[in-house]
Design brief:
eight-stranded mixed beta sheet; 2 domains; alpha/beta; Rossmann fold
Length: 309
């Protein structure tokens, strides 16, 4: 099968779903989208158009991409004849299991089935399917049309050739796919990210510094080089002897709890649930949420211009 002109079905038209649909429509594929929420489905083309415009696409390119997107009234019509199906539903295990049971009942027997989950093990989502060999995870990062990475997650049942087909499809669409050979919670990216978050929260909880200082330290030091120098590249750059010597002096004192920090629950119990509420680990002013989103989007666009995917 060629990588151009495939029929891609996307289940879910929210932030993740519309970005996945946008990516494949822009790459020349036919895309069918469905969502159980009528307003979410109806506004999907407008949101795709807005996102494409923010990415710098002209009116002709926007119209061309939207011309390849079809809104499907239900699951059956969305996946009928699909080559690849992407699920982009909320992070609820039972919901995803039900969705894939419905997908399997209506999609072609040779369609590749993929779940866009951030942390749930794919084997838990797909274990009840009769065609588990064609099921895998594709963890897109938010916003999916701006972050290059997509993690392709194999289970013990996944056909390796089909996983490679997915890898190639994503690469052809301009993404940076990464093959995850074992189905572990959080895959690669979120395991790394939340190991950092766990230590960051612990620093604040234990009075070593405040939350703003943690963010300043990351943004003004190693955070600046992460886009061009990965952690293992850096370990090789400084040398494994130095890396090992540092680990001997610090690893024993890092946070190792296997449970969420009680400090997070303390914050939530006091009404400090995050930026949208005006306070979380840090205090926020009205308008900060929108400004932060715009700042991140602008940064990602600039990175896309100067860094290879």
């Amino acid at each position: 099968m060629t990588q151009a002109g495939q029929h891609i079905a996307v289940i879910g038209a929210g932030l993740m779903g519309h970005g996945i649909a946008l990516t494949f429509a822009r790459a020349g594929h036919r895309v069918s989208v469905t969502d159980p929420v009528a307003d979410m489905l109806a506004t999907c083309p407008a949101r795709i158009g807005e996102s494409l415009t923010l990415l710098g696409a002209g009116a002709v390119d926007v119209a061309d991409a939207l011309g390849r997107v079809t809104l499907a009234k239900d699951m059956a019509s969305a996946v009928s004849g699909a080559d690849v199906v992407f699920e982009a539903a909320p992070e609820k295990l039972e919901l995803k299991q039900k969705i894939f049971a419905d997908i399997e009942a209506h999609a072609p027997a040779d369609a590749i089935l993929a779940s866009n989950t951030s942390v749930i093990q794919i084997s838990k989502i797909m274990g009840g399917l009769s065609g588990r060999h064609r099921a895998m995870g594709t963890h897109w990062w938010n916003p999916p049309h701006m972050i290059p990475l997509v993690e392709v997650v194999k289970t013990e049942w996944t056909d390796h050739a089909l996983a490679q087909r997915m890898f190639d499809l994503l690469a052809h669409a301009g993404k940076t796919p990464a093959m995850v050979e074992k189905d572990v919670p959080g895959f690669i990216g979120n395991r790394l990210q939340h190991a950092l978050w766990r230590e960051a929260i612990s620093l604040v909880e234990n009075g070593i510094c405040d939350a703003e200082t943690v963010d300043d330290v990351v943004k003004a030091s190693f955070g600046r080089r992460l886009a061009v120098l990965g952690p293992l590249e850096n370990a090789d750059l400084v040398g494994l002897e130095l890396t090992q010597d540092i680990h001997k002096q610090v690893l024993f004192d890092l946070e190792i709890s296997g449970d969420p920090s009680p400090y997070l629950q303390k914050m939530r119990d006091s009404g400090r649930s995050g930026m949208a509420a005006g306070a979380g680990l840090r205090d926020w002013k009205p308008g900060d949420l929108e400004k932060t989103k715009a700042r991140v989007a602008d940064h990602l666009r600039k990175l896309d211009d100067i860094l290879p995917n």
